Amino acid sequence: MAIARHDRGVRADLRALLSQVHPVFMLPPLAASWFGAAVAGEFGLTVGAVHMSAIFFAVYTAHVKDGYVDFHRRGEDDDHPMTVRGCRLSLLAAGVGFAACTFALGALVGPGAALVTLPTWFIGYLHAPQLDTNPLTTTLGYPTGIALALLGGFYVQTTVVTATILGFALVFLVTLAGVKIIDDEQDYAYDRSIDKRTVSVLLGRPRARTLAFSLLMTGLIGVLWGTVDGLFPPSAPAAALAFGSVAVVARPARPTIATMLLIRGAYVFLALLIVAVWFRPLSGTPLPDITVFGPYTYLATEVVFGGAAFALLRYAGALRRSARTIAALYPIAYLWDWYTLEVGVFEVTMRTGYDLFGIPIEEHLFMIVVPALVLGIHETIRTLSVDSDESPRSDSQA
To answer: Residue 54 and residue 60: Cα distance in Å, rounded?
Structure first.
């Protein structure tokens, strides 16, 4: 019996085998392996290539097993290019390839390298039908594989695990979990009809999307935390800013468009992090010194953030109602500010020196700007959420 279902011959079998190499999902784990090596600094190409090959066989296993289960066992897919025998032979060959790479890593590096690589195959092989029926494992399977590929790519080069590589692995785990929830939303109607418990089916599409983007943004903020803490290079936040910008555009989009944008945004995120880690373009560059404004420094920051708050409130159409809230809050903020200054809790420096009603004039503006910025962000998120909630409804009606 041949490997290919629709044609016969060596070429047909080869095409069927290659059909299970899905570049969109295959490239990120392979790139993550090399990203781990880049974080390590100087790395060996041979060891890196062996680890990357192991990750390839693990992901290939996942693709073949998923197609085999969905078409030949569940009958969910309309077609599949491989026969049952072809799928089983491919799984066997991929398993042998993975085992060979894992043993090679153990011989070249040590048992730790084999142990850190081994879980990726289990994630791939058990993806279907074991892991893809539970909302937690359905969501975290692929992101966990990426995180392990990154961690393994670093370990096989260094034989250690550092806070930096753990931080990067956690960032990818969290951000890609958010992307995976959006990706699963594309099949919401079908998954719901067969009682497949994805996050979207379990929580409903609006709440699932809120969770997805909350995870994504938490991961991107994690890049900022890691940079400030000295774990990541100074230019790493640029990668988070780029991915975050894509996420803002994707937030109100339909599932298919949102997934397409976020996957491409993840590619940009990874590419910019590789640049940040390998070239370290801002290393040694001091932070911008805004104290050149002298006594107007504090005032200048308030103008910048106040302008941002005004723009957000205007975009959300919330200028008037936010003004009422700020006016109601002002007396409480004034009393709090005056008391803490009076008893010496803190001191305002780099200010003009002008006081009004017992406190610096900059503090009066601060009590307006900060609530305005908070309300501006809140109202903007609310506006985007309403747009996103309407999009899935229009999908279901189409």
So the answer is: 10
Give domain status of residue 360, yes or no.
yes
Taking only the tens place, the pLDDT of each residue in 172-196 is 999 999 999 999 999 898 888 877 8
Q: Note whether 355 and 361 are within 8 A (CB).
A: yes
Which two three-digit tokens encode residue 323? 């003004």
Q: For residue 326, count other CB atoms closer than 10 A to its CB.
A: 19
Give the CA count within 13 Å in the CB-facing half-sphere of 79. 6
Domain assignment of residue 303, yes or no: yes
Q: Could you tell me if 17 and 85 are in contact, meaning their C-beta atoms sit under 8 angstroms apart?
A: no
CB 249 within 8 A of CB 237: no
Strand partners, 82: 4
Q: How many domains does the chain have?
A: 2
Q: Which residues on adjacent β-strands are paired with residue 356?
A: 359
Phi, then psi, of 360 in degrees rounded to 5: -60, 145
Q: Which domain holds residue 345?
A: 290-397
CA 58 – CA 154 distance, rounded (Å) = 18
**DSSP code of residue 253:** S
| Token code pair at residue 76 | 């969910």
* Eight-state DSSP code of residue 285: P
Residues 114-159 have pLDDT tens digits of 999 999 999 999 998 888 888 999 999 999 999 999 999 999 999 9
